């Protein structure tokens, strides 16, 4: 076992252990166990059977599994091992898209589909949800980071608009209960703001 992949394997073991408690998810548990042992070819065969079986089930059954899986993986290493492309394409993404139609006022599928606009939608539907708030702050930082990443050579966005977004991100921090999270994100926001303000000062010289 490679040391640098330790957290990946821990994720797979935890998923396998939890999936074993649901008889209908036994094949997914086996898939995770085989992945953890490095038996990828055998694992993908089991996963193919599981994806085919679950894809044929009713939407509530598929939603239950997808919601559980994505909540378990949120913030953990090894997502690409737990959700390889075949599972993403055949089960996870179609279920999330169907979910947005079946329950248009539910924030969760938008959260897991990701992307700035989807996260914005999730926040509009669940403005006090901490997971949503954190992802929105990170999304804002990512957008602003794209604007500033070529400084001092050039600015790729509209600095004043980015300052407004950073102000919003800072105001969202109060919605996070974890003090360490707030502190780390505040530092990131401050660093981006300082880059923009320095750029604007240089433009006036």
Can you give a write-up of this model?
With 205 residues, the chain is mostly helical. It folds into two domains: 3-104, no CATH class; 114-204. The chain contains eleven helices and no strands. The chain has helices spanning 6-19, 26-36, 40-55, 59-73, 79-82, 85-102, 108-113, 116-125, 130-148, 159-172, 179-204. The longest helix has 26 residues, at 179-204. The mean pLDDT is 93.
Present the secondary structure layout.
Elements: H1 6-19, H2 26-36, H3 40-55, H4 59-73, H5 79-82, H6 85-102, H7 108-113, H8 116-125, H9 130-148, H10 159-172, H11 179-204
Number of strands: 0
- Gyration radius, to the nearest Å? 20 Å
Order of helices and strands: HHHHHHHHHHH
Major sheet size, sense and barrel closure: none
- Helix percentage: over 70%
Beta-strand content: under 5%
Structural class: mainly alpha
**Overall pLDDT, averaged?**
93
Determine the N-to-C terminus distance.
56 Å
Number of helices: 11
Q: Could you say how many structural domains there are in total?
A: 2
Low-confidence stretches: none
Shape field: elongated
């Amino acid at each position: 076992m490679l040391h640098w992949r330790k957290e990946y394997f821990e994720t797979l073991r935890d998923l396998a252990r939890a999936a074993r408690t649901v008889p209908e998810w036994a094949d997914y548990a086996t898939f995770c166990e085989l992945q953890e042992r490095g038996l990828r070819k055998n694992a993908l065969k089991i996963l193919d059977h599981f994806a085919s079986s679950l894809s044929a089930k009713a939407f509530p059954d598929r939603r239950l599994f997808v919601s559980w899986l994505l909540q378990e993986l949120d913030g953990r290493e090894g997502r690409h091992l737990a959700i390889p492309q075949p599972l993403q394409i055949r089960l996870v993404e179609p279920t999330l898209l169907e979910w947005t139609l079946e329950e248009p006022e539910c924030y969760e599928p938008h959260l897991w589909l990701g992307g700035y606009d989807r996260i914005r939608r999730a926040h509009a539907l669940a403005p006090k949800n901490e997971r949503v708030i954190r992802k929105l702050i990170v999304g804002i930082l990512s957008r602003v980071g794209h604007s500033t990443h070529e400084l001092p050579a050039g600015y790729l966005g509209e600095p004043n608009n980015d300052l407004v977004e950073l102000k919003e991100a800072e105001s969202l921090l109060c919605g996070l209960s974890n003090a360490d999270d707030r502190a780390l994100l505040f530092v990131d926001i401050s660093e981006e703001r300082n880059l923009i303000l320095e750029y604007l000062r240089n433009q006036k010289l």
